[in-house]
Design a protein that fits this description.
Elements: E1 4-8, H1 31-43, E2 49-53, H2 62-70, H3 75-81, E3 88-90, H4 100-108, E4 114-115, E5 119-121, E6 124-125, E7 131-136, E8 139-147, E9 164-165, H5 168-179, E10 185-191, H6 216-219
Parallel strand pairs: 1-2, 2-3, 3-4, 8-10
Antiparallel strand pairs: 5-6, 5-9, 7-8
Length: 225
């Protein structure tokens, strides 16, 4: 069996291939073009396909701004995301830019679950689930959703009041240990970066502490069989 994993990240509300600077643009990005690729892949195989929206989808484009600040109606943006066929979604750091009320409204309009394993409220995942188990073609697939825990260093305090941002690495270890005995495959979906070369461990940019993707190199071996 071959499992295909498709993931989008940092779409920032760009539904059409335009940056809204000129008319009739056909730029090499957009949710619409991504949808074409996703559909092509799904139609080309009888094997299972998992599709993940990996964060930074609510803010960034003029359309996203219009939905949040002018129309005050998240569905004007999220209706497009609901057409993508995502299995799960993850929060990016920019999802908090318009405040919690709007984020909750937006997530409430989505037709796929939002996984927030390391973003907690009252010691529970913000939107109720840290992971999700999906069965396709008889294979149980566990998906864990993680977001950079550096958000409190950037975000307006009022936008994240009452939230706990737990360590990405420690949360991943706990979630993988919980899922491993009950699923066939574990997918860790992480909205964050590396700052280091994955092979050598050498810094590739200024180290701020905001990313955790490199931390498994040697520390997280216990969570991987």
């Amino acid at each position: 069996m071959q499992l295909t994993i498709l993931s989008t990240s940092d779409t920032h509300g760009f539904v059409q291939p335009t940056n809204y600077v000129k008319r009739n643009q056909n730029l090499p990005f957009s949710l619409a073009k991504t949808k074409t690729v996703i559909d092509r892949v799904k139609q080309s195989t009888d094997e299972p396909v998992i599709t993940i929206e990996n964060g930074d989808w609510l803010q960034g484009s003029p359309l996203a701004y219009y939905a949040a600040k002018v129309a005050k109606d998240a569905a004007k943006l999220t209706d497009a995301y609901n057409l993508m066929g995502y299995d799960v979604g993850i929060l990016g750091n920019h999802e908090f830019n318009y405040g919690m009320d709007y984020l909750k409204q937006a997530v409430g309009t989505l037709n796929y679950p939002m996984l927030t394993a390391n973003i907690l409220t009252g010691n529970q995942p913000l939107f109720g689930q840290g992971h999700r188990i999906i069965e396709k073609a008889g294979v149980k697939i566990g998906i864990i959703g993680l977001t950079t825990d550096y958000i409190p260093h950037w975000e307006t305090p009022a936008h994240i009041e009452g939230l706990q941002f737990e360590s990405v690495l420690e949360t991943a270890k706990k979630e993988v240990a919980e899922l491993r005995p009950v699923v066939d495959v574990v997918i860790v979906a992480y909205h964050g970066g590396f700052e280091r070369n994955l092979e050598t461990g050498q810094l590739t940019e200024r180290e701020t502490g905001e990313t955790s993707g490199i931390d498994w190199r040697p520390k997280c071996q216990v969570s991987m069989p």
